[in-house]
Design goal:
The protein has about 575 residues and is α+β, with helices and mostly antiparallel strands. It has five domains: about 5-60; about 75-190 and about 240-280, no CATH class; about 200-235 and about 295-380; about 385-425; about 490-575. The chain has 23 helices and 16 strands. Strands 3, 6, 7, 8, 9 and 10 form a six-stranded mixed sheet that branches. Helix 9 (about 200-220) packs parallel to helix 19 (about 440-450). It starts with 5 loop residues before the first helix and ends with a strand. Mean pLDDT is about 75; it is low at about 35-45, about 65-70, about 285-295 and about 430-435. It comes from Vitis vinifera. Pfam families: RVT_1. InterPro entries: Retrotransposon-Effector_Assoc (IPR052343), RT_dom (IPR000477).
């Protein structure tokens, strides 16, 4: 060992100063991250600050964020992962069609139904093993693929429709998982998506789209409507994207694991002219402003992968939209088929070609068709029915070439031709009871915001001429004919009127007891207002503006006998039957 020279001492001093400076800066950094303000009285150890900062990071990390009730709570997640019961299994088995073609195991569902009494132990054992270990034998998820021609002379693979023949046990398991899932899917799927959610239907989307276009035209607003076609949506779906979405929506680890196992171990064998080929795995894909004041915002509508997006006629907005589609494709593994997608002008749009070029799709025009329903068309126009008429002509031309008896022709007309216009008619004739009872659906909110609603919320207000498309006008007009014959089922009594609504039989009390109604204190009273909650059961207490005469006591007696036994239930909503 030797003493350091002057140069070495200066170098060590400089290095030591640099070390202390960087150590101080690191300490300040961790102190700022830890947000601790009591440093002078506490520990100045950098390790302490490091732990505190990591703690804050874990606490502030956003694994998921709730937007308009778009995740399920812990109770629903736990219910999805409960053990399978024999009643649940048999109920799912009974709901399945037993006559479908069997899969690789050779057993149709009719076999499992017929042999349930002695096969149920094996089935329950299979489900118990799946519940406990989150997996089952891979061979149970083998599938035969049958290719069905889309058109005569097809050669390209895209011209065939693949039909999956799945094994019976896996089909039963999938049905049970679907039954559980459909109980919570409405909580996590946006109201703009109307496919595969109980209580929503395809016609809702078409009605909303027509009303939205009408509102823009009546207010002289310009905009564009992007009609998107997602290519082979179920075949190209990225599994990691699907599982990540399930996790972010609050589904439990076990449930997510079940779904991951079911979709990832599937093997397929194509039946070519009868015999199967070898099995192969898949790497992705799945089988399978108004009169009432505030406007109802509609930015996009979906039915499965059929998508409509409402945009302003702005090049900047279309640029952002094209970026959004690009990111969506990158994350989900899906692909927008721009050759089949189109941009439709609503109102006067001068730079339409520029907007279409920004997205990369073709230019279309209104009226068009969406989900088989005319979009942006005058519903009274004969042209609305051109598609139905064309299908009629094609069927009749084909039948004329065949030797069919008169009785056979009548059968074909009743079974085929008579059902063709039903889909289109169903939108033009939506029952009024839907508006009364489907209070949370998107289509009802749009109609209510646009036309307003009468007291009680059972009907919209009268529709003025020139306001709104003809669809809802006709529905409102026809509903008015039935208004006096509507019967109500009372719940909490907040939307049914005591005297004027039909709730206690095939009559209204004001018509059945006109002399009593004449001096009733409150002729517009709701049921809730005339129900006295005194005691455990409660009693009716209609009020009158004067004492009864002797000859009116009997009528009051009959009134009380008529409503006796009918009680309000504060936990239920009033409904229209």
């Amino acid at each position: 060992m030797r003493l350091l020279s002057m140069e070495e001492l200066e170098a060590r001093k400089e290095v030591k100063g640099d070390f202390e400076k960087w150590a101080l800066m690191k300490e300040i950094s961790w102190r700022q991250k830890s947000r601790e303000v009591w440093l002078r009285e506490g520990d100045r150890n950098t390790g302490f600050f490091h732990k505190m900062a990591n703690s804050h990071r874990r606490r502030n990390c956003l694994s998921k964020i709730k937007i308009n009730r778009t995740w399920i709570d812990g109770e629903d997640a736990a219910r999805l992962e409960e053990a399978f019961t024999e009643e649940e299994v048999f109920s799912a088995l009974s709901d399945l069609n037993g006559d479908k073609a069997p899969g690789p195991d050779g057993f149709s569902l009719s076999f499992w139904k017929f042999s349930w009494d002695f096969a149920k132990e094996e089935v329950m054992g299979f489900l118990k093993e799946f519940h406990e270990h989150d997996r089952f034998v891979r061979s149970l998820n083998s599938t035969f693929l049958v290719l069905i021609l889309k058109k005569a002379g097809a050669k390209d693979l895209r011209d065939f429709i693949p039909i999956s023949l799945v094994g019976g046990l896996y089909k039963l398991l999938a049905k049970m998982l679907a039954n559980r899932f459909k109980k919570v899917v409405g909580k996590v799927v946006s109201s703009t998506q109307n496919a595969f959610v109980e209580g929503r239907q395809i016609l809702d989307t078409a009605l909303i789209a027509n009303e939205a276009i009408d509102s823009m035209l009546k207010r002289n607003e310009s905009g564009v409507l992007c009609k998107l076609d997602i290519e082979k949506a179920y075949d190209h779906l990225n599994w990691n994207f699907l599982l990540l979405v399930l996790q972010r929506m609050g589904f439990g680890e076990k449930w997510t694991g079940w779904i991951s196992w079911c979709i990832s171990i599937a093997t397929f064998s194509v039946l070519i002219n009868g015999p199967p080929t070898g099995f192969f795995n898949s790497s992705r894909g799945c089988r399978i402003k108004g009169r009432s004041g505030d406007g109802a915002l509609v930015s996009h509508l979906l039915f499965a992968d059929d998508t409509l997006v409402f945009c302003d006629a702005s090049q900047d907005q279309m640029t952002y939209f094209s970026w959004l589609l690009m990111w969506f494709e990158a994350i989900s593994g899906l692909r927008i088929n721009l050759d089949k997608s189109e941009i439709l002008p609503v109102g006067r749009v001068e730079n339409l070609e520029v907007l279409a070029l920004e997205v990369g799709c073709k230019v279309g025009k209104l009226p068009t068709s969406y989900l088989g329903i005319p979009l942006g068309a005058n519903h009274k126009s004969v042209a609305v029915w051109d598609g139905v008429e064309e299908r009629f002509r094609k069927r009749l031309t084909m039948w004329k070439r065949q030797f069919i008896s008169k009785g056979g022709r009548i059968t074909l007309i009743r079974s085929t031709l008579s059902s063709m216009p039903i889909y289109l008619i169903s939108l033009l004739r939506i029952p009024r009871v839907c508006f009364a009872n489907e209070r949370e659906t998107l289509w009802r909110r749009v109609i209510r915001r646009k036309f307003g609603e009468e007291e009680g919320g059972w009907y919209t207000r009268d529709v003025r001429e020139g306001f709104g498309v003809g669809l809802w006008k006709d529905i409102r007009k026809e509903g008015a004919l039935l208004q006096n014959k509507v019967v109500f089922s009372m719940g909490n009594g907040r939307r049914v009127k005591f005297w004027k609504d039909n709730w206690c039989g095939n009559f209204t009390l004001c018509n059945f007891f006109p002399s009593l109604y004449a001096f009733a204190s409150y002729k517009e009273a709701w049921l809730e207002e005339l129900w006295d909650h005194l005691g455990e059961e409660g009693v009716w207490s209609p009020s009158f503006s004067r004492p009864f005469n002797d000859w009116e006591v009997e009528k009051v007696e009959r009134l009380l006998l008529t409503i006796r036994g009918r009680r309000l239930n504060p936990l239920l909503e009033d409904r229209m039957l």
